[in-house]
Amino acid sequence: MKQFAVIGLGRFGTSVATTLYKMGYEVLAIDSSEEKVQAIANDVTHAVEADATDEAALKALGMSNFDVVVVAIGQDIQASILATLVLKASGVPRVVAKAQNDLHGKVLEKVGADQIIYPERDMGIRVANNLVSTNVLDHIELSEEHTIAELIVPASFHNKTLGQLNLRARYGLNVLAIKRNEEILISPKAEDMLNHGDIIIVLGEKDRLARFQQRE
Question: Among 188, 200, 204, which residue's Cα sits nearest to residue 142?
Answer without folding.
Answer: 204
